[in-house]
Design a protein that fits this description.
By secondary structure, the chain is α+β, with helices and mostly antiparallel strands. Helix content is about 40%, strand content about 20%. The chain has a domain at about 125-260: 2-Layer Sandwich (D-Amino Acid Oxidase, Chain A, domain 2). Helix 9 packs antiparallel against helix 10 (about 315-340).
Length: about 375
């Protein structure tokens, strides 16, 4: 992964083959290296691959019932009857159906505006960044400088927000460009050739060039970028391969925000994913955090089942909350501070962050620790 400052051009190169297993102890007492095939920073895959695999797995496990195309109309507490006291149980009402589902444990995996979180009266705190993330799937002119076997991700920090290109199979890549709402709207309005040219420009030209083209040009961005790139100085091997095209219908945008729930658990309720936390995409940790939540919650529920606890009780859920809330809070705070640090376009902050990148680039053990943290290794 190539990461660099769009203002000062200071950069850090994360290569798992160079940093895997590195630590202060490894530096003092070298040990044999593992095979290169074992090294990786991250694996990129389309969301459709994940969802289809999960649905296939669910369909093979009995007696799980999947209610597709079904909307939750209401969540309320049950009643105390002669047969059973359901006053602490969430009762889920389905739209267009008399059927009601009583949940021993209701998991809120229902996104940023979580109805489950609202039902549990759990407060979520944070702020909006006044930035939008522009996403698209693009095709590049080649497999990248590392070849077919090794893929490189690129991220450049601009004053308006970072732009990242993340490799996918077959010379395709996923774009995530964090920028102002006005620039996001402008990018989405461009023709495919002009949009592709602006993606190339985001990794090659000065921030002032990007601002001018997104502010003053109505069309003709491809010609303008081509002229400016020819007259700009950059190392081709340190930027992505040129964009060959944009997948039709893939360009979209979404507002960026940071939110964190005060707790992930309530009475017979557990929150995971965006229902519990929302993070800036600059470190690519949003989905990873949600998967970590699911893994941790499943582990604690399995333990509760083994020892005979009620899986909806605080005894069963407190361990999950303790484990994931602190871990996610640390990542949320780090990413939020990075966003603010790289929002400065001039002054001592630029000098300080550039010095920091140069120091990280020279410390293999630190880069190894950052890779392990980003990949979820413990």
């Amino acid at each position: 992964m190539q990461v660099w400052d769009g203002v000062s051009d200071s950069r850090v190169h994360f290569d798992p083959e160079e940093t895997a297993g590195n630590s202060i102890i490894d530096t003092i007492f070298p040990k044999p290296r593992a095979p290169p095939a074992a090294y990786t920073v991250a694996t990129m895959t389309e969301n459709q691959n994940l969802t289809s695999a999960l649905l296939t797995r669910l369909s093979s496990v009995k007696p799980i019932e999947t209610l597709d195309k079904t909307k939750v109309e209401d969540i309320s507490l049950g009643e105390d009857t002669a047969a059973l006291d359901m006053t602490s149980w969430p009762i889920v009402s389905l739209a267009g159906s008399p059927r009601k589902l009583a949940a021993r444990l209701l998991v809120g995996a229902d996104g940023f505006n979580s109805p489950v979180r609202s039902f549990a009266d759990i407060t979520s705190r944070g702020w909006d960044y006044d930035r939008h993330g522009v996403v698209a799937t693009i095709r590049t002119t080649g497999p990248g400088w590392r070849g077919h076997d090794h893929k490189t991700a690129y991220q450049r920090f601009l004053p308006t927000g970072p732009v990242a290109l993340l490799p996918l199979p077959d010379n395709t890549a996923s774009l995530v460009w964090s920028t102002t709402p006005a620039f996001a709207a402008r990018l989405k309005s461009l023709s495919p050739p002009d949009f592709a040219a602006m993606v190339d420009a985001a990794f090659r030209l000065l921030p002032v060039d990007l601002e001018y083209m997104l502010t003053h040009l109505e069309a003709g961005h491809a010609d303008e970028v081509a002229w400016r790139v020819r007259n700009s100085s950059f190392v081709p091997e340190k930027v992505p391969q040129p964009v060959a095209g944009v997948q039709e219908g893939s360009v979209a945008s979404f507002p960026l925000r940071m939110r964190h729930a005060d707790t992930y658990i309530g009475e017979r309720v557990a929150l995971i994913g965006d229902a519990a936390h929302t993070i800036h995409p600059l470190a690519g940790q949003g989905l990873n955090q949600g998967l970590g939540d699911a893994q941790a919650l499943a582990r604690h529920v399995a333990f509760a089942t083994e020892v005979g606890w009620d899986i909806g009780s605080s005894w069963a859920l407190e361990g999950y909350n303790k484990e994931q809330w602190a871990r996610n809070n640390a990542m949320l705070g780090t990413v939020d501070k990075l966003h603010k640090l790289y929002s400065a376009g001039s002054g001592p902050v630029v000098w300080g962050r550039s010095l920091g990148l140069n120091v990280v680039e020279r410390m293999g053990w630190l880069k190894g620790a950052l890779i392990r943290g980003a990949s979820g290794s413990r």
